[in-house]
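Could you help me review a protein record that somebody else here produced? Do not assume that whoever made the record got everything right. The record follows directly below this note.
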Amino acid sequence: AELKKASKRLSCHKRYKIQKKIREHHRKVRKEAKKRGRKKPKKDPGVPSAAPFKEELLREAEQRKQRLEELKQKQKLNRQKEHEKKRKLEAKKNAAKLKEKAEGKESSGKSKAKTNKRLDKNSKKSFCRELKKVIEASDVVLEVLDARDPMGCRCPQLEQAVICSGGDKKLLLVLNKIDLVPKENLEKWLNYLKKEFPTVAFKSATLMKDRTMEQFTKRRARADLSRTTECFGSKCLLKLLQEHGKTQNKAIQVGVVGFPNVGKSSIINSLKGVRACNVGLARGVTKSMQIVHIDKQTKMLDSPSIIADPSNNALALALRSIIDTEESGSVDMLEGVDAILNHCSKQQVMMHYSIPDFSNTEEFLSLLAQKRGMLKKGGVPDVENVAKLLLCDWTGAKISYHSQPPGSQRPPPYLTEDKIAGMQECFNLKNLEEENNSTVQALKYPSPASSIIFQSAGMANGAIEENEVIEVASEWENMETSKEEDEEEEEEDFTESDDDQDDVEEEEKDVTEVSQALELVSPTRDFLFSESEHSNLLSFSLDKTADEDDAYDFNTDYV
């Protein structure tokens, strides 16, 4: 049943009370007005008959009045001209819009071409283009892997592109987020990966000391800053890169590549010691190649994320693809969460989230929503937002889970023994192993019981060539481009012709003439005119436009 609106009727007592208050207020206002009294405007006494040069003074006054009347008439004409111009422009715009509608297909084709150019920065094709730039420009490529699922973070297409590119290009594996897996599991993975590529154990600093981060740390004083700002493995990695630079006898460029949320930008920030690159929980924060100078001999190239191929399984797409939480539907989210839950131990998930037994993914999400207080109107659990939050937790640095390395060492077909030896050539592997051991010993790790056991789905395929990417433009992007087109049309329409400029110059001349006439006022002006007339002349406005300062700034609204 619909709720009825509240009645506006008042009780008689309240109504009479209000009326009484109003009468009292009016009485008070009338009394104050009587006390003040009404000031009548003083009459102009005119020029006395005994005044010298009376006729001349009267002529001057008449001339001034005539000039002011002429000026008013000119201003009226100018206003009319402006209105006519605006009407013509509006008519042109309407005609252009009608033509566009009639043309239809031709105009849509042109607009699509424009949108493709403007949407370049946020498109997946531009990500591939920028990634390829990084691979081509770099002497050493660092493939960043999440220590919780290193095999799932490896991209065979990327590795093949680096190996087959020719020259002395090297590929290093950086095992990031090592503090989120048990110590034994980490050692197993280091032993497995070092047989294929030189592998560096790394734990990046999550909060860097920066102007933007100072306020954050002050507000949230409870955060464990000792844990978050520490970085492990940076000395080992820098030493490796510097040794390689000495062998090459030149300044080297190091490209940092990988799937989203593996910690590419945070590794660069950790090596630099300052927040040089933007970092965030959202996937795909880095849009283009960024160059960061570590020292005179090494340049780091930050790259956008590798785009996961749509042919991958649901788990790889859930953890490794760039998901836009605003655009992606609830079906995609549920599929991703379902894939994650299917590859985990159910009991461990229940223990971690402290949730009772559940039969399917929707039930799990509804229980989690109820526990976290994420409810819609009427107490309905907000399943979509919980799914988004859960995916962010699994790719971020919140949840501790680990996967086991394969039982037998089977390198991919593009990795022959010669190529493995070539990749390990210029690096001191003994020193690397010692440094890795020291970083492993220095860190604290979660216990195997508290870490969730996770079944990896193997290597994730990625699209590196632009032709492989299927682009789908979203609605909001189309809206943005249409707005930009309208702005361009307005700019074209409002360009002034030569005739318009001449009119403006004439108007300016008229205004200057009148101002000069007003300045040349005789010294007997005070004698001629009363105070009231004098103030009227001075306060006469020559069609002033409203100041820009008075305009309301919408950017000052508080969210």
User: Anything to note?
Assistant: The longest helix spans residues 54-103.
